[in-house]
Amino acid sequence: MSSQLAHVSTITRIQNPPFSSSHHQQFLSQRTYIPAKVYEHPAALLLERCSSLEDLRRVLPLVFKNGLSQEHLFQTKLVSLFCRYGSVVEAARVFDAVDDKLDVLYHTMLKGYAKVPDLDKAVSFFVRMRCDDVEPVVYNFTYLLKACGDEAELGVGKEVHGLLVKSGFSLDLFAMTGLENMYAKCRQVHEARKVFDRMPERDLVSWNTMVSGYSQNGLARMALEMVALMCEENLKPSFITVVSVLPAVSALGLIRIGKEIHGYAMRAGFDSLVNVSTALVDMYAKCGSLNTARRIFDGMLEKNVVSWNSMIDAYVQNENPKEAMVVFQKMLDEGVKPTDVSIMGALHACADLGDLERGRFIHKLSVELDLDRNVSVVNSLISMYCKCKDVDTAASLFGKLRTRTLVSWNAMILGFAQNGRPIEALNYFSQMRAWTVKPDTFTYVSVITALAELSVTHQAKWIHGVVMRNCLDKNVFVATALVDMYAKCGAITTARKVFDMMSERHVTTWNAMIDGYGTHGIGKAALELFEEMRKGNVKPNGVTFLSVISACSHSGLVEAGVKCFHMMKEGYSIEPSMDHYGAMVDLLGRAGLLNEAWDFIAQMPVKPAVNVYGAMLGACQIHKNVSFAEKAAERLFELNPDDGGYHVLLANIYRAASMWEKVGQVRVSMLRQGLRKTPGCSMVEIKNEVHSFFSGSTDHPSSKEIYTFLEKLMCKIKEAGYVPDTKLILGVEDDIKEQLLNSHSEKLAISFGLLNTTAGTTIHVRKNLRVCADCHNATKYISLVTGREIVVRDMQRFHHFKNGVCSCGDYW
Q1: At CA 240, angle to CA 234 and CA 242, rounded to 5?
Q2: pLDDT in tens, 77-134
Q3: 723 falls in which pLDDT band (50, 70, 90)?
Q4: How far are the Cα atoms of 374, 406, 410, 427, 435 from residue 402, in angstroms, in the given order?
Q5: Which helix (H) or strand (E) element contains residue 385?
Q6: Dihedral sign, Cα of residue 802, residue 807, residue 810, residue 812
Q7: DSSP per-residue letters across 759-790
Q8: Which of 174, 489, 696, 773 minimizes the number of CB atoms within 10 Å of its CB?
Q9: Alpha-carbon Rg of the chain, whole angstroms?
């Protein structure tokens, strides 16, 4: 392409002297004689009334039938209309069939290629023009400049710049404004400013181009400065100026300036224009004034699809997906046809709500609108299905994608990671690299999230090494993910080292470290870090307080936890969420303050949800309180009748109280409702391979060796003082009860780990449920008799067993 333009440059200099815009006006004023009957022909009138490609194709046979295809008027009109409606191929067919081509036909055809845009064909056609001795006019160059839309096409844009100068258009206002716009679009805003500064005269369009260029290239303050300079030059900002500068105001969060611009727009009468009102909606929403944005939106006399999209996005970005869906539905009810942006906004809202049913409806709507082949829409669908826990449908959509972008891969990797399928997330990451798709920061954060879920220290160190080699370990998002990963892999000391090495920390970084201390039962360290955070510049958010209260709960720091709960609202104006209420019930209940916990529930200003009563029931199991357990269970069975876990928990409480008849009733109720207990599963990594064990299973290839070793191990820990808690098993003889206890998944995983590692190696086990009392007691003795450190991560926290003692202090 560059060589083509270089050739044209030579032709232009040799064959043509500098050509001014006045020459262009003379050229346009030239007319070829066309008989009046041609203008009056019905086909000419029909062509004028064409409003779509379909209309044009219906009229075309009439043009040929009446022998009008050789008339210059019809030739030019047909080329122009085909180009206008995006069918450059059909325009080219008409063009190529013309024997005696007027220059205007060439200009129209070039404009069509540039409009598509197809830069390669536009440049090739420009070369053909010059070879056919068609003299260039200023608009030819501006067409080419418009077709240069990104950094990859900057080289062509620069060559067109050179041709403009050589052709004598360096002082042409229209040409220089087009050049300025091209540099801005290609993210060379400094070059655009150079062009602007050299212009001998500037109009409002050139100023607006510069304002828009700065705004769209993330230089918001420069955009505002340009508007100030414009006013100093006594140029009155137009509605385009207002629309161009408002995104800069949004980026800086300068709502005061936004209000001033709003006032100016009202005084100038611009506020009635749909694009100005839409820009104001967007500005107020991004500056946090969602109610003002909605008032402007509701007051708009005319709304286009962009207005609706802005309002939907406003609610999504301000974490109000429910209202976003209300606006989307209203948009449909008013007959406004959604665009790809509308669909993506609605899918984002469904994802945040976890509303799979509505998500499927929007998926069906996207198919009806022929948007299901749009890769951005499909990426949004993948993300929605993943967040709604239907990752298999997401994978099916991903598999059908012809063009997979980096966003597509990232959505799938994160989707598997967040849905408890880390192995598949890592497999997709491997496939992505095999396809030579270069990972970005988001990719690595997603992979680290998967490894945090997998909780394998060796793999954690591997990905840490990968991000270091790619010089991303200093990135705040990647480093925060590393802190969280190491904490979830049981390496809390390493997590703190990464945290301390960070030069920049976001609120999520502090939250990850505080939560890490909490899940490891190091509540005092969590509180100390929280106090350090409060003294700094990073303001705690709702997640911070949730992490601190949970940390206090796991460490029995009741007074500190209650203090934090009150501080959240009184000191930081953060309204407690249902998660905060659940954490408070857990804090009080775990400490044995069951009366206080129940009173707390009764005094909640909102209706308690499942997590609140679930925390209460868990506390009742710890402290063997049947009375409160029955009250909590009754509410739970009303709110979530399909969860068998709460029935099992209640049965265990009855069992501990030797209320066998009640235990039987719960079991019968579960059978009647078709509810099942979630099977216990424990995982251990040996030599870079993760091995999974289910309670009582014999599927593992080494099962015979494992059970033989486990039998001997049980004898050793009994000699050290271990007594099996056979009360946990019902309806069988005592020796069978012991066999059933010994086949619990964590005991199998620990035995396999001991069998396949050398002395002194720490065993890391992960379990999908809460560790039972017998396994917790047995693991303490196993650590004592083997001299091994054993780290167990259950669904709630970490247990570090060493020398017969657990880090939780038997408080879990």
Answers
A1: 75
A2: 888 888 888 888 888 888 888 788 888 888 888 888 888 777 888 888 888 888 888 8
A3: very high
A4: 10, 13, 16, 20, 13
A5: helix 375-387
A6: negative
A7: TTPPEEEEESSPPPHHHHHHHHHHHHHH---E
A8: 696
A9: 35
Q: State yes or no: pLDDT of 15 exceeds 70.
A: no
CA distance readout (Å), 544 to 430, 564, 579: 34, 10, 12
Residue 53 tokens, joined = 């490609």
CA–chain centroid gap for 43, Å, is: 52
pLDDT, the chain, mean: 88
According to the model, what pLDDT value does residue 38 have? Answer: 44
For the chain, the distance separating the N- and C-terminal CA atoms, rounded to the nearest angstrom, is: 70
The span from the CA of 17 to the CA of 528, in Å, is 78
Q: Identify the pLDDT of residue 136.
A: 80
Length of the chain: 812
Sheet strand arrangement including 689-694: 689-694, 681-686, 763-767, 790-793, 798-802, 805-806
Q: Does domain 576-677 have CATH number 3.40.1440.60?
A: no
* Domain parsing of the chain, residue ranges: 576-677, 700-806
Burial of residue 337, with CB atoms counted within 10 A of its CB: 0-12 exposed, 13-18 middle, 19 or more buried = exposed
DSSP 464-515: HHHHHHTT-TTSHHHHHHHHHHHHHTT-HHHHHHHHHH-S---HHHHHHHHH
Total Cβ atoms within 10 A of residue 115: 16
Distance, in Å, from the CA atom of 554 to the CA atom of 591, rounded to the nearest integer, reads 9
* Of the candidate ranges 179-188, 502-511, 528-537, the one whose mean pLDDT is the lowest: 179-188
How many C-beta atoms lie closer than 10 Å to residue 658's C-beta?
A: 9
φ, ψ dihedrals at 767, nearest 5° = -120, 145
Structure tokens of 722? 């271990």
Interior/surface letters 144-179, b for 16+ CB within 10 angstroms, e for the rest:
bbbbbeeeebbebbbbbbebbebbbbbebbbbbbbb
How many helical (H) and strand (E) elements, i.e. helices and strands, does the chain have? 45, 6
- 321, 371, 385, 466 from 347: Cα distances, Å: 10, 13, 9, 33
Q: For the segment 793-804, what is each residue's pLDDT rounded down to a tens digit? A: 988 889 999 999
Two tokens, residue 486: 């190491």
pLDDT tens string 205-253: 999 999 999 999 999 999 999 999 999 988 999 999 999 999 999 999 9
**Coil, strand or helix at 153:** helix
Q: Which residues, in sequence order, are CB contacts of 189 under 8 Å at separation 6+?
A: 183, 213, 214, 217, 219, 222
8 A C-beta contact, residue 511 and residue 547: yes
Interatomic CA distance for residues 328 and 344, integer angstroms: 11
DSSP state of 402: S
Look-up: residue for tokens 């494992």?
Answer: 706
pTM, 2 dp: 0.77
Contact status, residue 285 vs residue 253, Cβ threshold 8 Å = no
Give the span between the Cα atoms of 122 and 132, in whole angstroms.
Answer: 15
The rounded distance, in Å, linking the Cα atoms of 315 and 330 is 14
pLDDT band with cut points at 50, 70 and 90 for residue 41: low
pLDDT-derived band at 3 (thresholds 50, 70, 90) equals low
**Continuous segment of H or E residues that includes residue 663:** helix 660-673
From residue 196, alpha-carbon distances to 137, 161, 165, 175, 232 in Å are: 21, 14, 15, 11, 16
How does DSSP classify residue 152?
G
Question: Closest Cα to residue 339, out of 366, 379, 301, 367?
Answer: 366
pLDDT at 69: 64
